[in-house]
Amino acid sequence: MDSFTLTKQGAEARLYQGTYLGRPTIIKERFIKKYRHKHLDDSLTKERIKAETKAIVRCKSVGIRTPAIYLVDFERRMVFMEHLLHSITLKDFIETTSFEKLSKLAISIGTILGRMHEGNIIHGDLTSSNILLMNVHNKDKFDDLKDLKIVLIDFGLSHVDCSAEDKGVDLYVLERALVSTHAVADQIFPKIIEGYRGYYKKGFKEILAKYEAIRARGRKRTMVG
Amino acid sequence: MVIAIGFEGSANKLGVGIIKDGVVLSNPRVTFITPPGEGFMPKETAEHHRQHILSVLQKALEEAKISGEDIDVVCYTKGPGMGAPLATVAIVARTVAQLWNKPILGVNHCIGHIEMGRLITNAKNPTVLYVSGGNTQIIAYARKRYRIFGETIDIAVGNCLDRFARVLKISNDPSPGYNIEQLAKKGQKYIPLPYCVKGMDVSFSGILSYMEERTSSLLKEGYSPEDLCFSLQETIFAMLVETTERALAHCNSSEVLIVGGVGCNLRLQEMMNEMCKERGSTLFATDERFCIDNGVMIAHAGAEMFRSGTRMKWEESTVTQRYRTDEVETTWRED
């Protein structure tokens, strides 16, 4: 722990960088949230560490790239995981990349999400900050899609579920996160759906119907008060 | 210089406010209070507003020491809200606009809350938590619109509190939420309740059903009404603070503004402030005068729209029960 330095305070956790067993490592510390009742905070933290590690293992089994887990420490509320050195968030990538490249990438993202849902993994917090693009040649270059691998992170709110409803909510959460953050989202999200549909042939029909219904629920909800 | 009058009556509060270049001249309000165990229904609420609106209007003008001629623009709540009360208030706004021969502007209720909050607190570009009886939204400004980052996927947080108050037959005077807050201060035992966060969205219907089903048995097991109020508040407010923090981190923002009726709950403010302190952000909140629905927030948002050139034709001066925050182009914001 001594050799680790604090790099970021996200919403969920503090992230520390360093080396563990000779490997570049990120420690994700779900520190105590003082605003929360202790009882609630303890149970949520435990639940989320479990959810995150479970989903990562499950992703591995269906061939989705995620950071590898090195150590889980419930006492210190920490997970030690692989530090993906040569990667950027989709959020940063979108702002610096041409639309053509983005729409191609969006189709691949859709494919990955389709595969994740086929494996009944519900991410629970899909945003452009939680999708990484990693250069497979260990370089800090992100201009050629062929060199990039899509990596999913932050599975703290994930769970396993086979229902179309939960998968629909997952897509809806992503759409809203994209639309509220990025000007090009209106054009990109349909491409993600296109990739999703192309891969997840068995499920997409029911899921898209659910997704439409969830969307309408938001739009049509009465807002009295 | 713009002097604007605003009419608000989208729910059980009826308010008329007058503002002159960001200075509040008057802001009287009356509230339709129902007996314990009952909520307010559209028809009765509209009746209440019809009964009181002229006296509230007169009070607003007298307090502001202003007459109809001095006003530049008449603003009213176009939506969202309950149909009948909205229509009642809009009719009066249209009538006085005709009488005084002044332009009329329909204002989005949520935008009214946000702009009033920014005016009172001087928050520049905050991530906004808008929490009331009908709305639960996490909002951030981008590209000429207030974008909804997260919201409830079923009922609003205030609706959850109000309906729980009915289960316990807590008084609706001055408001069910206020009385829950007071009881919660005396709560001792924490009861684990369903906690439902989906990304930046939240859900309260599950927790309400849980409370509706279990309250009588929990009371028999030795938990007090105070314990129930305490546990409910701790749980649902933690959900709101968590999702706000997630939006804050996602937007790299360093300001949080709480608006809406539930926003005057001091426990919610305390929890949000604790979260903000942990990340070096600043919390902005207002008190019941401006958190709870009022007329001047509509006047202020309307004045901002008017100043930036927005005009409304007579035939467009209608009301709508559904009117999303992100439908309005924020012509008055330059950033």
TrEMBL record, chain A:
Keyword annotations from UniProtKB, A to Z: ATP-binding, Kinase, Nucleotide-binding, Serine/threonine-protein kinase, Transferase, tRNA processing
Known EC number: 2.7.11.1
InterPro entries with a match to the protein in the record: Bud32, Kinase-like_dom_sf, Prot_kinase_dom, Tyr_kinase_AS
Ranges where the Protein kinase domain occurs: 1-225
Cellular compartments per GO CC: cytosol; EKC/KEOPS complex; nucleus
Coiled coil: none
Single GO MF annotation: ATP binding
Pfam families: Kdo (PF06293)
Origin: domain of life: Eukaryota
GO biological process terms, semicolon-separated: tRNA processing; tRNA threonylcarbamoyladenosine metabolic process
Catalysed conversion reaction: L-threonyl-[protein] + ATP = O-phospho-L-threonyl-[protein] + ADP + H(+); L-seryl-[protein] + ATP = O-phospho-L-seryl-[protein] + ADP + H(+)
Family of the protein in this entry: Belongs to the protein kinase superfamily. BUD32 family.
Protein name, entry field: non-specific serine/threonine protein kinase
UniProtKB/TrEMBL annotation, chain B:
SUPFAM superfamilies listed in its UniProt record: Actin-like ATPase domain
Cofactor stoichiometry and binding remark: Binds 1 divalent metal cation per subunit.
Catalytic activity from the UniProt record: L-threonylcarbamoyladenylate + adenosine(37) in tRNA = N(6)-L-threonylcarbamoyladenosine(37) in tRNA + AMP + H(+)
Residue positions binding substrate: 130-134, 162, 177, 181, 265
UniProt EC number: 2.3.1.234
Gcp-like domain location: 30-299
Cofactor section: a divalent metal cation
Keywords for this protein: Acyltransferase, Cytoplasm, Metal-binding, Nucleus, Transferase, tRNA processing
Family annotation (PROSITE patterns): GLYCOPROTEASE
List of residues binding a divalent metal cation: 109, 113, 130, 293
PANTHER family (UniProt xref): TRNA N6-ADENOSINE THREONYLCARBAMOYLTRANSFERASE (PTHR11735:SF14)
Family named by the database record: Belongs to the KAE1 / TsaD family.
Name of this protein: N(6)-L-threonylcarbamoyladenine synthase
